[in-house]
TrEMBL record:
It is found in: Golgi apparatus membrane. This is Hexosyltransferase. Its EC number is 2.4.1.-. GO terms for cellular component: Golgi membrane. Signal peptide: none annotated. It is an enzyme of class 2 (transferase). Pathway: Glycan metabolism; pectin biosynthesis. One of its GO terms (biological process) is cell wall organization. Belongs to the glycosyltransferase 8 family. The chain crosses the membrane at residues 20-37. GO terms for molecular function: polygalacturonate 4-alpha-galacturonosyltransferase activity.
Length: 533
């Protein structure tokens, strides 16, 4: 191989200095950064323009509010027209002018579309584009005024309408009261059937009569003052049976209980038959009829004397007096029934007794009542639960305080009390001649100017200052007409179905009927025969 000469050298290439390369790279980077910066500025300008435009639109939207606040704005004028037109639509419908109401509603929609379009484009309405809508609406509003839809006329019309509705409501309320009273006074077919069946049984089955006569020991119990004596005055057999049965079921010593039942001639045999053929846990039951009380006559009893008056007979029985101004409930003949007024003659009915508990036939007993006989009445005659927790149950709601006799003798804010469960001290009754007090007030009410309804008002007068308040749990009322607090029901000793909705009637309050019905044996053959269910 040929070797090069020692001093031979290749020609040296000329190289670019490294500093120059670095300078060129730096220049390119600067150029690139410059280009990026310029592009960003170019793109940022439209964005800024967009934000500015958006703010301008918001400001234009705010001008709509300014339009509404401006007194000479067409937007405000349209809104005012719409508000007035809406009121006229209601009035037109009330007047049964449905065509005009439709025209107003259509024009309201047209005006609302205009306002909606203006809000959407963010520019105020012009007079030119709203002129047609304002003119058409103005014509309709003028027409409404011609139809007497202006405020003054409508106020008068509404007043007349309100008065007509009040009269209609009073008429319906009166009819409802009448029909309710009629329904409350009806004798259910099943109850009538039971009376007929029992009366037939009494006269057909001589063993029943013999069984009653064989109870000689009953005579001793009836007059035994150490026993717990209760009295019920009723012509309703099944209701009286519930009172006796519920009392017996809840008594700690039913053998110590004596029930004195007083009925009328019509139901006497049926009542005797029922309480002879059925046992009530050893409770002694005495049945009497008030027609056997010889002292109960017109010369002694003001109510019987008043019944002989032709005007009284016409008021209660004909239904034609005073042009129907007096509500039907005030003219119920039952308020003249001796079974109702017999409560004022208890010492005469039971001359041998010193203390007795009076029970209405529409009550249910759910506690032992023996403690009632140990209550100290503090020299008073009547132990009763007061009912003046509300204003309604004070004396001024029951009595006529425009009468001088009432005004002079009784405090109008005195607390009322309830009949239905009362403890009577017959010794104090006789001593204070309470029956004589009752006679005085009954004789002064011949013209019905002292009170109108029932036996409670004369009771309030008779026992005024002679009543001892009892714990409210002894006697809970309202099951025949209203809702009762469940806690009161649970604590109550005697539950009273006072009111028209008696539990044995179809109009009875359904949720309270079980409290009463559980004391009836529906499997009894006579009850099944008479379709009791």
């Amino acid at each position: 191989m040929r070797r090069r000469a020692t001093d031979f050298r290749r020609p040296v290439r000329r190289r670019v200095p490294d500093a120059l390369w670095w300078a060129l790279c730096f220049a390119v980077v600067l150029l690139f950064i410059y280009i990026l910066t310029k592009g960003t500025q170019i793109e940022s300008r439209p964005a800024l323009s967009k934000r500015t435009y958006k703010n301008d639109r918001i400001l234009e939207g705010l001008n709509i509010t300014d339009e509404l606040l401006s007194s000479d704005s067409v937007t405000r004028q349209l809104n005012d027209q719409i508000s007035l037109a809406k009121a006229f639509v209601v009035i037109a419908k009330e007047s049964n002018n449905l065509q005009f109401a439709w025209e107003l509603s259509a024009q309201i929609r047209n005006s609302q579309i205009l306002l909606s379009n203006a809000a959407t484009r963010r520019s105020p309405l012009t007079t030119r584009e709203s002129e047609s809508a304002i003119r058409d609406m103005a014509l309709l509003l003028y027409q409404a005024q011609q139809l007497h839809y202006d405020s003054a006329t409508m106020i008068m019309r509404f007043k007349a309408k309100i008065q007509a509705l009040e009269e209609q409501m009073n008429s319906v309320s009166e009819k409802s009261s009448k029909y309710g009273q009629i329904a409350a006074e009806e004798v259910p077919k099943s109850l009538y059937c039971l009376g007929v069946q029992l009366t037939t049984e009494w006269f057909r089955d001589l063993n029943l009569q013999k069984k009653l006569k064989d109870k000689r020991h009953t005579e001793m119990k009836i007059k035994d003052r150490n026993r717990y004596h209760f009295c019920v005055f009723s012509d309703n057999i099944i209701a009286t049976s519930v009172v006796v049965n519920s009392t017996a079921k809840n008594s700690k010593n039913p053998n110590m209980i004596v029930f004195h039942l007083v009925t009328d001639e019509i139901n006497y045999a049926a009542m005797k038959a029922w309480f002879t053929m059925n046992d009530f846990r050893g409770v002694t039951v005495e049945v009497q009829k008030y027609e056997d009380f010889t002292w109960l006559n017109a010369s002694y009893v003001p109510v019987l004397k008043q019944l002989q008056d032709s005007e009284i007979q016409s008021y209660y029985f004909s239904g034609n007096s005073d042009d129907g101004k007096t509500p039907i409930k005030f003219r119920n003949p039952k308020y003249l029934s001796m079974l109702n007024h017999l409560r004022f003659y208890i010492p005469e009915v039971f001359p041998a007794l010193k203390k007795i508990v009076f029970l209405d036939d529409d009550v249910v007993v759910q506690k032992d009542l023996s403690d009632l006989f140990s209550i100290d009445l503090n020299g008073n005659v009547n132990g009763a639960v007061e009912t003046c927790m509300e204003t309604f149950h004070r004396y001024h709601k029951y009595l006529n305080y425009s009468h001088p006799l009432i005004k002079a003798h009784f405090d109008p804010d005195a607390c009322g009390w309830a009949y239905g469960m009362n403890v009577f001290d017959l010794v104090e009754w006789r001593k204070k001649n309470v029956t004589g007090i009752y006679h005085y007030w009954q004789e002064n009410n011949v013209d019905r100017t002292l009170w109108k309804l029932g036996t409670l008002p004369p009771g309030l007068l008779t026992f005024y200052g002679l009543t001892e308040p009892l714990d409210p749990s002894w006697h809970v009322l309202g099951f025949g007409y209203t809702n009762v607090d469940p806690q009161l029901i649970e604590r109550g000793a005697v539950l009273h179905f006072n009111g028209n909705s008696k539990p044995w009637l179809k109009i009875g309050i359904e949720k309270y009927k079980p409290l009463w019905e559980k004391h009836i044996d529906y499997s009894h053959p006579l009850l099944q025969r008479c379709n009791f269910h």
